[in-house]
């Protein structure tokens, strides 16, 4: 009992371990993966309180109140709607027991401690997340270019007026339909929903 209380006080009870693929089905997170939609687990970190499940589509966080409570809250962060940024990795020193991976997804800040025996595996997760961050930054840059182009086109059209061969209502409808179609096309081009190809590159399951 004393060892357990000491571990909780020092924060050692919440140092995570990496779950092997053959044990994914033994985790709580696995129950919430959208297998029917082609969602696939690539990496799971498990502490006594939490599970952090990285899939090709999202981060699934099984959030525990404490290491001694059975209460859990499920939180899902789809990559399509939540940008990953500020990814960093703190490696273990000589006397450290853990490594720490940090990142922000959406507006949520994560800082996860993992036993340093899994350091090599965590390096691969770091490479995956930093690569996803770079892709998302590129997508955001192109989206800004897209909006700037649309603004320029709108101002140019306004200065030139409507077509002389169409009524204003017909011209407006044609422009609106084209703009909507173009925006949807550009949005799809620069929005990634599935990052399985990135995880496949770095994670050797």
TrEMBL record:
Pfam families named among the record's database cross-references: bPH_1, YvbH_ext
Signal sequence range: none
Domain (YvbH-like oligomerisation): residue spans on this chain: 148-205
SUPFAM superfamilies for the chain: PH domain-like
Domain Bacterial Pleckstrin homology: 10-131
InterPro entries: PHb (IPR012544), PHb_sf (IPR037063), YvbH_oligomer_dom (IPR021722)
Coiled-coil segments: none
UniProt protein name: Bacterial Pleckstrin homology domain-containing protein
């Amino acid at each position: 009992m004393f060892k357990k209380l000491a571990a909780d006080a020092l924060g050692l009870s919440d140092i995570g371990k990496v779950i092997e693929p053959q044990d994914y089905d033994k985790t709580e997170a696995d129950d919430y993966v959208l297998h029917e939609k082609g969602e696939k687990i690539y990496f799971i970190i498990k502490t006594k309180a939490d599970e952090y499940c990285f899939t090709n589509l999202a981060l699934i966080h099984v959030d525990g109140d404490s290491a001694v409570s059975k209460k859990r809250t499920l939180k899902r962060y789809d990559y399509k709607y939540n940008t990953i940024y500020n990814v960093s990795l703190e490696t273990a020193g000589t006397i450290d027991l853990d490594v720490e991976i940090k990142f922000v997804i959406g507006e949520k800040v994560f800082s996860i401690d993992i036993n340093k025996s899994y350091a090599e595996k965590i390096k691969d997760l770091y490479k995956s997340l930093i690569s996803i961050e770079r892709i998302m930054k590129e997508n955001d840059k192109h989206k800004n270019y897209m909006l700037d182009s649309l603004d320029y086109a709108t101002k140019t059209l306004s200065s030139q007026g409507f077509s002389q061969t169409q009524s204003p209502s017909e011209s407006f409808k044609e422009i609106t339909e084209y703009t909507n179609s173009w925006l949807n096309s550009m949005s799809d081009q620069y929005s990634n929903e599935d990052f399985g190809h990135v995880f496949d590159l770095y994670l050797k399951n």
